Amino acid sequence: MNRNKFEVPRTSQPWLVTFADLLMVVLILFVLLYSYSDTDFESVTNSFQNHNRSSEPEGSGGGGAGGEEETSSDDETDSTKDEKTVPKEYEEQLEEMIKLEKHIKEILDYIKNYAGKHNLEDKMTVTPTEKGIEVVLPEIMLFPSGKADLIDEAVRFLDDMAPLLAEVSNIIEIEGHTDNRPISTERFPSNWDLSTARANVVIRYLTEEHNLDPDRFKAVGYGEHQPISSNDTDEGRSKNRRVVLIISKENISK
């Protein structure tokens, strides 16, 4: 007589067994976490505080009648801790940082509005870098081609920028850049001379006409040696002819 045998079915994917065990472990973990979530952590904290107070010497509380003086002392300690949240030596620095952030925002807002008003969004750009905040000013808004004399629009722009720059004490670096077309005039024998002269003209206008501190400024002329676009097209050369105003992270007071 044949007996029916009970056989355990075998799976062709043995990894499912391990996976099922893992799911069981995860389920148990979540059950434990849920059970701990009911714990009143505030009560636990208070119990630790009470334990610490009871372990202090009797005289350290400043008095024992009803614990009133002890509570008063705790209140004073808490208020003292609150007062020392920001050390006094850092308060002025914090205030200066807040003011600087506000003034930088005003400068960036002005540049953004100016670029939109004069259709220069694709040429007049603002970029944060390791040096600081770089503001690219295209040649078309500052100088005639091949010259270093401010046009009327440049004067109006710098007149508006000067009061904003006066509100910050950061070092300001002015860079002059050209395209790769050679220049050879009596005033500008090379692009080095042209780019440096343009940087100097911007600084002299801000310092002489608006009395900004000359110690805050640096002038650099790169000629055609730091292009941001190809010099093979008119559009690329136009982008390369620029003045870059950098509001440095470095402060003049340092």
Structure report:
It is a single chain. This protein is α+β, with helices and mostly antiparallel strands and 254 residues long. 49% of the residues lie in helices and 13% in strands. It is built from 7 helices and 5 strands; from the N terminus they run H-H-H-H-E-E-H-E-H-E-H-E. The protein has a 5-stranded mixed beta sheet. Strand 3, helix 6 and strand 4 form a beta-alpha-beta unit. The chain starts with 14 loop residues before the first helix and ends with a strand.
Brief digest:
The chain is built from seven helices and five strands. By secondary structure, it is α+β, with helices and mostly antiparallel strands. Mean pLDDT is 78; it is low at 1-9 and 60-69.
Any key phrases for this structure?
extended; 13% strand; 7 helices; alpha+beta; 49% helix; 5-stranded mixed β-sheet; 254 residues; 5 strands; single chain
Main β sheet profile: 5 strands, mixed
What is the radius of gyration computed over CA atoms, rounded to a whole number of angstroms? 35 Å
Assembly context of the chains: single chain
What is the chain-wise order of helices and strands? Answer: HHHHEEHEHEHE
> Approximately how much beta-strand content do the residues carry?
5-15%
The low-confidence runs, each spanning 5 or more residues with pLDDT under 50, are 1-9, 60-69
Distance between the termini: 102 Å
Strand order of the largest sheet: 1-2-5-3-4
Fraction of helical residues: 40-55%
Specify the structural class: alpha+beta
Number of strands: 5
Mean residue pLDDT: 78
The number of helical segments is 7
Cα shape: extended
